[in-house]
């Protein structure tokens, strides 16, 4: 095998665009009125309609988190009081491959409701992560082999392999890309414009720090 005369530490990396598993939606419903009590009362039926639309979506909706109702005063451009607004936000997670356009259309059909933000998510268990980790290890070995050859040495045994940034929070593998809902003409010939939300590939990466022993003498055939 030979005796190690040095070590080389490299960072292997791999990148890929992955089809998303889920989409996160931030849905806001708001009601405005002359008084705070009136705005709060008007918000109730609208909020219930949003909940019904989410419930009727069935297993398309994977998760929903309802926030507290907040009431704040409205002001005119001149700085005078212009009534009150009551607002409730709902965080929703849905399957990326489902009928998202129908869900969005049902939500925004509720008066005072808007989709404030969306992001595509690749789940931690997606097989793409395993493929990229393997590719990152291969990239690291290639780099180490190149450095060994450049130094007139041979690549020895693998001594350590770690992921960078392990001191940070776990589970940062689900990457997301913000995206806005788009308006598209209905091809069915009768409904006018409908909301569409088309899944887009999410950039995902893997990195690994690897240390190899280096042995005296060039590699065979080098």
TrEMBL record:
Segments traversing the membrane: none
Biological process terms in GO annotation: DNA damage response
Gene3D superfamilies the UniProt entry points to: Protein of unknown function (DUF541), domain 1, Protein of unknown function (DUF541), domain 2
Lineage of the species this protein comes from: Bacteria, Bacillati, Actinomycetota, Actinomycetes, Mycobacteriales
InterPro entries: 26kDa_periplasmic_antigen, SIMPL/DUF541
UniProt-recorded name of the protein: SIMPL domain-containing protein
One family name in Pfam for this protein: SIMPL
Coiled coil regions in record: none
């Amino acid at each position: 095998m030979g005796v190690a005369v040095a070590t080389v530490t490299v960072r292997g990396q791999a990148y890929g665009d992955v089809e998303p598993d889920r989409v996160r939606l931030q849905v806001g419903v708001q009601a405005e009125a002359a008084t705070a009590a009136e705005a709060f009362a008007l918000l109730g039926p609208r909020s219930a309609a949003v909940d019904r639309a989410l419930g009727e979506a069935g297993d398309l909706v994977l998760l929903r988190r309802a926030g507290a109702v907040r009431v704040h005063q409205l002001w005119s451009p001149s700085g005078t009081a212009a009534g009150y607004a009551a607002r409730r936000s709902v965080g929703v997670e849905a399957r990326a491959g489902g009928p998202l356009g129908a869900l969005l259309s049902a939500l925004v059909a509720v008066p005072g409701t808007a989709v404030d933000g969306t992001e595509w998510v690749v789940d931690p268990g997606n097989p793409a992560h395993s493929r990229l980790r393997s590719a990152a290890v291969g990239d690291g070995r290639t780099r180490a082999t190149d450095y060994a050859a450049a130094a007139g040495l041979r690549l020895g045994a693998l001594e350590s392999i770690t992921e960078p940034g392990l001191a940070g929070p776990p589970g940062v593998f689900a990457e997301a890309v913000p995206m806005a809902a788009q308006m598209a003409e209905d091809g069915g010939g009768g409904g006018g414009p409908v909301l569409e939300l088309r899944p887009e590939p999410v950039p995902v990466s893997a990195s690994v720090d690897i240390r190899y022993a280096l042995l005296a003498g060039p590699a065979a055939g080098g």
